[in-house]
């Protein structure tokens, strides 16, 4: 099998690694990729991530048997439709199905139809509506941009004025906002692979959205993650399948827009049980880095089964017993104004216990590796326990040299006994 992975982040680097580890996958190409991916697989330039005809032409040129679309923007733009119309097997939902991520208001509509537990919400198009909705929900106020916002379109605040300001910025940009009641409880991510009928959950992970330690600072695309989650209820995944993932997939099929790919279920574990915070239509970053690090089942076979509708014929997934922790190394100024062009060194020593996935990196005119985005690297550590995985990840982070870089020092610390004792 030949696979083509679309995207350029650490998530796509993890997908390429996972596919290459599958003995049934003969080769993996990526577009546009990044320098880290280029070290292990051929990469190809693209006019744009949402240029469906260009991606289809590339898939034909390399003879791809499976195209895996990583980011949300091309999915919402309908790139999967263009590829399927051209005869390719695609892992990723159609444009209509990807609206589960492309519009939070649409996702809430689907959840209501499928009787999926989630927060009470209001869809607003004006400042007056937003104020009334916020007064109805009370603080903390949760104000969400209805459309795609690269993981940074949500404001959670105790300040009515700050919430209204975010809402107004969305209105000024021509969008809507979804204002909902705050869900109290730890957050968990569950990826569900589906072919539009059968749903197969991956092991849960937890990510860390805030920039700084102790969940301080602004929201980001994600500063780290870990898996497995030994503290969650034993029946959580079964509950998510029964009450959330399967009903949602069934509802999408009933509407004539079957969802094929990965349904990312973002949960809050409230006192009343799990509630959906959001759906995404693709693998999450940085959770993918730890979930795929632990997956033993061949990835190519799994994604192909989803793409061709044979997921019900697949055996149960097999997982490593190890723990995995990923720590994001971000550039100076992230997330507000990331600085780029700074040299990156200290990446040469790889091991089975710790490795580096590239995200915002590039080669400059002299061929030097430099920063090229906000989240620059994901450092993955593996170990027999969360303690060991954290140790491996942070020892590897310490070797990375990037002027002005920033990272959290507390990823998974709350569940790591040694880290807690050190604190």
UniProtKB/TrEMBL annotation:
Reaction(s) this enzyme catalyzes, per UniProt: 5-phospho-beta-D-ribosylamine + glycine + ATP = N(1)-(5-phospho-beta-D-ribosyl)glycinamide + ADP + phosphate + H(+)
InterPro entries: ATP-grasp, ATP_grasp_subdomain_1, PreATP-grasp_dom_sf, PRibGlycinamid_synth_ATP-grasp, PRibGlycinamide_synth, PRibGlycinamide_synth_C-dom, PRibGlycinamide_synth_C_sf, PRibGlycinamide_synth_CS
GO function term, MF aspect, one: phosphoribosylamine-glycine ligase activity
Name of the top EC class for this enzyme: ligase
GO biological process: 'de novo' IMP biosynthetic process; purine nucleobase biosynthetic process
The protein's Enzyme Commission number: 6.3.4.13
Residue span, ATP-grasp domain: 108-308
Named cofactor requirement(s): Mn(2+); Mg(2+)
Pfam families given in the database record: GARS_A, GARS_C, GARS_N
Keyword tags: ATP-binding, Ligase, Nucleotide-binding, Purine biosynthesis
Gene3D superfamilies the record matches: 3.40.50.20, ATP-grasp fold, A domain, ATP-grasp fold, B domain, Phosphoribosylglycinamide synthetase, C-terminal domain
Pathway: Purine metabolism; IMP biosynthesis via de novo pathway; N(1)-(5-phospho-D-ribosyl)glycinamide from 5-phospho-alpha-D-ribose 1-diphosphate: step 2/2
NCBIfam families: purD
Family: Belongs to the GARS family.
Entry protein name: Phosphoribosylamine--glycine ligase
Native species: Rudaeicoccus suwonensis
Gene of this entry: purD
């Amino acid at each position: 099998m030949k696979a083509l992975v679309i995207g350029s982040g650490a998530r796509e680097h993890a997908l390429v690694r996972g596919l290459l580890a599958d003995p049934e996958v003969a080769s993996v190409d990526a577009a546009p990729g990044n320098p880290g991916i280029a070290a292990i697989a051929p990469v190809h330039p693209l006019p744009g991530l949402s240029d469906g005809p260009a991606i289809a032409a590339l898939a034909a040129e390399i003879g791809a048997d499976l195209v895996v679309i990583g980011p949300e923007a091309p999915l919402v733009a309908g790139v999967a439709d263009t590829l399927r119309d051209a005869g390719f097997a695609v892992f990723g939902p159609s444009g209509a199905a990807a609206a589960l991520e492309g519009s939070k208001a649409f996702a809430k509509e689907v959840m209501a139809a499928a009787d999926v537990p989630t927060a009470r919400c209001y869809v607003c198009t004006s400042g007056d509506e937003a104020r009334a909705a916020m007064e109805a929900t009370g603080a903390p106020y949760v104000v969400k941009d209805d459309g795609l916002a690269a993981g940074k379109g949500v404001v959670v605040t105790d300040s009515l004025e700050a919430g209204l300001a975010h809402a107004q910025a969305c209105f000024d940009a021509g969008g809507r906002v979804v204002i909902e009641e705050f869900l109290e409880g730890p957050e968990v991510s569950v990826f569900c692979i589906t072919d539009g009928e059968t749903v197969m959950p991956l092991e849960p992970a937890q990510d860390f959205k805030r920039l700084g330690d102790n969940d301080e600072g602004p929201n980001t695309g994600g500063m780290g993650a870990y898996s497995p989650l030994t503290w969650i209820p034993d029946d959580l995944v079964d509950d998510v399948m029964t009450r959330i993932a399967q009903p949602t997939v069934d509802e999408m099929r009933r509407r004539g827009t079957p969802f094929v790919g990965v349904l990312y279920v973002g949960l809050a574990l409230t006192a009343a049980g799990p509630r959906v915070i959001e759906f995404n239509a693709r693998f999450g970053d940085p959770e993918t880095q730890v979930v795929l690090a632990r997956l033993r089942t061949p990835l190519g076979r799994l994604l192909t089964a989803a793409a061709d509708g044979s997921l019900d014929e697949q055996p149960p997934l097999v997982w490593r017993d190890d723990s995995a922790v990923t720590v994001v190394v971000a550039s100076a100024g992230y997330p507000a104004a990331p600085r780029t062009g700074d040299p990156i060194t200290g990446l040469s020593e790889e091991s089975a216990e710790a490795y580096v996935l590239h995200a915002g990196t590039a080669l400059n005119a002299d061929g030097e590796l430099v920063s090229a985005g906000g989240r620059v690297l994901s450092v993955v550590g593996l170990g027999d326990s969360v303690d060991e995985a954290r140790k491996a990840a942070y020892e590897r982070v310490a070797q990375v040299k990037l002027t002005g870089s920033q990272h959290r020092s507390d990823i998974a610390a709350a569940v790591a006994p040694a880290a807690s004792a050190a604190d």
